[in-house]
Amino acid sequence: MSPNSWICLHPSNATQTTVSLDNRGLAYGDGFFTTMGVIDGQILWLDYHQQRLVSHAVALQLQLDSFSLLTVLKTHAKQLQQGMLKLIVTRAEQEVRGYGYTPNTGGGSACEIWLKSSPMAITTARSLPLANNQFLPLQPAASAICLSSQIACLPPTLAGLKSLNRLDNVLASGELQAIKAKTLAGTIKPSIAEGLLRDMSGQWVEGTMSNVFYQLVEAPVAKSSNRPHSQNNSSNYLTQGQWYTPSMAQSGVAGVMRQVIIDALANTERPVVMRSLHDEDLPRITRLFFCNALRGIMPMSSLRLLSGEVVSFEAI
Question: What pTM was estimated for this model as a whole?
Answer without folding.
Answer: 0.90
